[in-house]
Design a protein that fits this description.
It is a single chain. The chain is α+β, with helices and mostly antiparallel strands. It has 14 helices and nine strands. The chain has three domains: 154 residues, Sandwich (Jelly Rolls); 43 residues, no CATH class; 106 residues, Arc Repressor Mutant, subunit A. Helix content is 46%, strand content 18%. Strands 3, 4, 5, 6, 7, 8 and 9 form a seven-stranded antiparallel β-sheet that branches. A two-stranded antiparallel ribbon has the order 1-2. Strand 1 and strand 2 form a beta hairpin. The chain starts with a strand and ends with a helix. 33% of the residues are buried.
Amino acid sequence: MELITKSKRPGMNCSIDVFFEETKGFSAYINDRNTYKLMLVKSGHFVIEENGEYRVITAPAGILINEKADFKVISENGVVTRTLFFKPTFIREEFTFEAIASGEYDKLFSAVKDAGKKTASEKVYESIVGNCEIEDCFRDSIYQDYLLLSEFFGRDRDIVCYALTKQEYDMVNRLVMSARYDLVEQPDNLWILRVRYFIISVLFLATADFYINWRQYELYKDPLVAKVSSYFWDHLSEEITLESVLKKFSVNKNTLNNAFNNEMSMSCMAYLEDLRVNRAKKMLQLDDESVSEISRLCGYDDTGYFSKVFKKHTGLTPSDYRRQMKGLC
């Protein structure tokens, strides 16, 4: 199937290289070799395999997938996705896959001295701070547009995953669903222009690392660790005991803890505690819920015990940590 949208407007006999699909699970076209994919994970969790390692993705999340990616799902539960398929030529007609692969626009990155193995984004940030040689690139709109696409090829991986807070998901989802509305309804002759604007807006957020989060960057070598971690993320607010984990995954204590110690340098339940504290830190920075509500959402019904655990990890009470983070902003 050609992933395009045809105009239904009178007098507009054309089509554009953009296609939208919402599905339970994943689109049948997710490994299409002729498009970039911008996927929003609305609900559920899943595990994907990348070069023999495993990544746990938990909603809400955003995923950028290039034309070379092999998106291989190992397991999934309750997943609903919204995906925009588009060719880079929709952003700018010069950006064919062949032109991008040739490196003819890499002046934007290669002008940075001693870049080493830094990511595309890191190279750009470094250039902003102290390398005037790149000034012409930033003045030229073609390089500005090229930078918008750099997350698809600039991190030396074919799949880039972002964990989103609820607020971040809502922001990106509004843009994606606005693009969907114009693609489906085509209310006037400006619908193509608006679709391009909505896609560019989402790409800008990704390039700016606006909604980047450490969680979706974790890779696991052991599939047992990946599956248990996925389960933890999906049930983080619930009571989880070692016994319940052993029963669910039909594994003994030594096997489970050895797997986690080899992979994460800590026991299974210590890793769960670490996940919960990190989730609490993120919520204390960005959300407005009370400490007691955050405690509950992170799996601690006893706020006093939550504060004790949080202070053990950070040296601060949750309230002090929130004040410190707000002060930095």
